[in-house]
Amino acid sequence: MSQENIIIALDEGTTNAKAVALNAKGQVVAKCARPLSIETPREGWVEQSAEQLLEASLAVVRQVVDAVGAQNVAALAISNQRETAIGWYRASGQPLGPALTWQCSRTADFCHALREQGKEAVIKTTTGLPIAPLFSASKMRWLLDAIPNGSELAAQGEICLGTVDSWLLWHFTGGTAFCCDYSNASRTQLFNLHSGGWDNTMLALFGIPRQALPQIRPSSGLFGHTQGLSGIPDGIPILAMIGDSHAALFAHGLGAAGGVKATYGTGSSVMAPVASAQCDVKSLATTVAWHDGERLVYGLEGNIPHTGDAVAWMVESTGLNELPEAELAQALGTLPASVDSTLGVYFVPALTGLGAPWWDEHARGLIHGLSRGVKRAHLIRAALESITYQIADVVVAMRQHNAFSLNALMVDGGPTKNDWLMQYQADLLGCPVMRSDVAELSAIGAALLARKALLQVDNEQLRAFLPEHITFQPDMARHDRLQKRWFDWQNAVQLARATA
User: Fold this and answer.
1) Among positive and negative, which fits the CA dihedral 217, 218, 224, 226?
2) Cβ atoms within 10 A of the Cβ of 326, count?
3) In sequence order, what are the beta bridge partners of 273?
4) Residue 115: inside a domain, yes or no?
5) Residues 215 and 318 in one domain
6) Quick one: 357 and 220 in the same domain?
């Protein structure tokens, strides 16, 4: 193998860290994954060890470097779970505390206060994002408040605040590079979508000193070089960083119009490429999809906190988690098809609140419509159906945008392996669902951006590296029948919101 053959993409997610090596044809030639733990010390609090995120990331990259040979690695790329906020001391690189994950709603009261102060309009206009504890800014504020003299230290440049990409880059480069990419910056609620930089009004509103924030760079380009890492040679260029949902959209179709992407993971991101930063749809976020080194591409997005997580909760609650992994996967495919319906049961998985299009952090989950005949199969089906309804709710909101078009829903993530789920989604939406069976789609998207920087090629020259899709065509007769169930689901959502 020549050096140009291998790009290693690190995909640091919520539940695991994966490293994937891709050769010059874009084929996966080696991969490694490590699980990550999630802590919930209080209701609504969701956190992870920042050290564990780093250690797992280093370990999987090290193993893949060893598998392909260090001399064959041309570049590294990073995709990451988004909105998760980490603070660390600049001098030592030690974290201030845990990483506050995107699911964490501990700052709900702070966000509520901003709404009460009438700040929602200026925040949405400036950043493209609605007020919600999902985004990083309020979490960064909490991190500074949680330590003595946090704001003063940050203002003096002694504290770094960042998203996961900047945390990893800092350590991968031996503390020489403190940067994030445009996609991750746009998820903080501190980024001005129109000027393309940190916004002074937002910094003042959230009390975040500019000195504590990373430099913003294009998603494709040089961020720094590896330095001082055990088992990973010095000098490997890091040529791409991007949020994982954005990376998946890039890998699906390079941002072609009409190709709407839904990532089915712990939560879900539904994202559509759009031409401008303007968005009048109150319930959705406008974000930077990526900066490919040539131009900014924007995205219209709805974020759902509990999709795969909803199924995992129901699996545990019904005892299916005791099955071996292969048997569990089979059960999730056969149980929902073994019954004709849920017998009127709806599961609204607002386990830490509702995301788009509702944005209600005070809503709480419920199982509605239980009757004596309901069995485990009905409950599992209700959990799977809840994924499709939540995604369809976001698509309905997207249709309010005058530049939105939907030719096909392009899907990825673990739950998409369930054929029953994919067909139900196609039938509910009444459009084709195109599944990528490549488990490493976010990693591939990041690797494509790194390859673009490495070879100095345009996007059309990357098209040959795109993975293939399997298409689920909608049954339009069933589509018509499912509209009543979808309406009843929305009524159940209102009940979940009424419990707040």
Assistant:
1) positive
2) 8
3) 299
4) yes
5) no
6) no
- Give how many domains the chain has, as a whole number: 2
Whether residue 487 is contained in a domain is answered as yes
In what helix (H) or strand (E) does residue 220 lie, and over which residues does it extend? strand 220-225
Asked whether the beta carbons of 360 and 500 are under 8 A apart, the reply is yes
- Single out the residue in 221, 252, 283 at which a domain terminates: 252
* Structural domain of 351: 304-434+473-499
pTM score? 0.86
Is 374 among the domain residues?
yes
Q: pLDDT tens string for the chain (500 positions)?
A: 344 579 999 999 998 999 999 998 888 999 999 999 999 999 889 999 999 999 999 999 999 999 999 999 999 999 999 999 999 999 999 999 999 999 899 999 999 999 999 999 999 999 999 898 999 999 999 999 999 999 999 999 999 999 999 999 999 999 999 999 999 999 999 999 999 999 999 999 999 999 999 999 999 999 999 999 999 999 999 999 999 989 999 999 888 878 899 988 888 989 998 878 877 788 898 999 999 998 899 999 998 989 999 999 999 999 999 999 999 999 999 999 999 999 999 999 999 899 999 988 889 999 999 999 999 999 999 999 999 999 999 999 999 888 788 999 999 888 899 999 999 999 999 999 999 888 788 999 999 999 999 999 988 899 888 888 999 999 999 999 999 999 999 999 999 997 65
Residues 108 and 238 in one domain: yes
At CA 431, angle to CA 482 and CA 412, rounded to 5?
A: 100
CA dist., res. 451 & res. 4, Å (int): 9
Residues 195 and 344 grouped into a single domain:
no
Residue 73's contacts (CB-CB under 8 Å, 6 or more residues apart) are: 3, 6, 7, 8, 21, 65, 233, 236
How far is Cα 156 from Cα 212, in angstroms, rounded to an integer?
8
CATH number at residue 366: 3.30.420.40
Same domain, 220 and 322: no
Sign of CA dihedral 329, 335, 341, 343: negative
